[in-house]
Amino acid sequence: MTSSFKRTSSVILSLALIFSLAACDSDNNSDEGDKDPTIVGNYTVTSIHNKTNEELPNAVIPTSELVEFEFTEDGVTHTLGIYIEATIKFQASTYQFFSSITTEVDQANAVNKQDTESGSYSLSGTSLTITSSDPESDGPEVFTITQSGDNLTLDSPDLALTAVRN
Fold first, then answer.
1. Do 118 and 127 touch, CB atoms closer than 8 A?
2. Quick check: 90 and 39 in contact, CB under 8 A?
3. Residue 44: which of 89, 14, 108 has the closest Cα?
4. CA angle, 42 as apex, 28 and 119 as ends, to 5°?
5. What tens digit of pLDDT does each residue of 115-163 get?
6. Where would I find the beta strands (DSSP E) of 91-158?
7. Which of 18, 55, 135, 160 is the most exposed place for a label (fewest CB within 10 A)?
8. pTM: predicted TM-score of the whole model, two decimal places
9. DSSP, res 87
10. Residue 3, φ and ψ in degrees, nearest 5
């Protein structure tokens, strides 16, 4: 019984030493950058670029500030104001996107639309596939993802957005 206990103790001590060395090694390599490409966390969207919008082609709209665009209709110039706030929450395999968009024409008739979308996602390298749980969804959307520190960029042929981790 004593030799069995010594072997078990020896194995436990060896495993403890291996785990402690592995922990020290991972701490010592922290200057190599974040090796975990996880996007799990809460993000505040800082800009949105709807690439398919015909009325505002190539407009990158910053969030949390009023952005105004001029347009002419029937010979009269109008001002369109847009104010957007948006957040994204990524969990282990699910996401939730919340947006609040207020629009107004000529500083009148403000209309606010709030929307929440959720579903699942998968991440493979720099490819992020989002599948909405909304039954009216057109199917999975694929984005190229770039992550630098707390900054996140999602880009697709139709939409690009930037966000910062809270």
1. no
2. yes
3. 89
4. 115
5. 999 999 998 888 999 999 988 888 899 999 998 889 999 999 988 999 9
6. 94-105, 108-124, 127-132, 141-148, 151-155
7. 135
8. 0.71
9. E
10. -70, -35
| Cα separation, 140 vs 8, whole angstroms | 51
Strand-pair partners of 44: 87, 164
Instruction: Evaluate whether the domain defined by 41-165 bears CATH number 3.30.160.100.
Output: no
Residue 136, token pair as written in the block: 């009216």
Give φ, ψ of 74 to 5 degrees.
Answer: 55, 40
| AA letter at 125 | G
- Radius of gyration, alpha carbons of the chain: 24
* Token digits of residue 1: 């019984």
- Identify whether the C-beta of residue 71 lies closer than 8 Å to the C-beta of residue 116: no
Which DSSP symbol is given to 84? E
Alpha carbon distances (Å) from 49 to 74, 99, 107, 152, 159: 27, 14, 23, 14, 6
pLDDT at 31 over 60: no
In this structure, what DSSP letter does residue 3 have?
H
Q: Give the C-alpha separation, 162 to 153, whole Å.
A: 4
**Domain ranges across the chain:** 2-32, 41-165
Distance between alpha carbon 45 and the CA centroid of its chain, in Å? 8
Which residue in this structure is represented by tokens 């291996």? 18
To which H or E segment does residue 26 belong?
A: helix 2-28
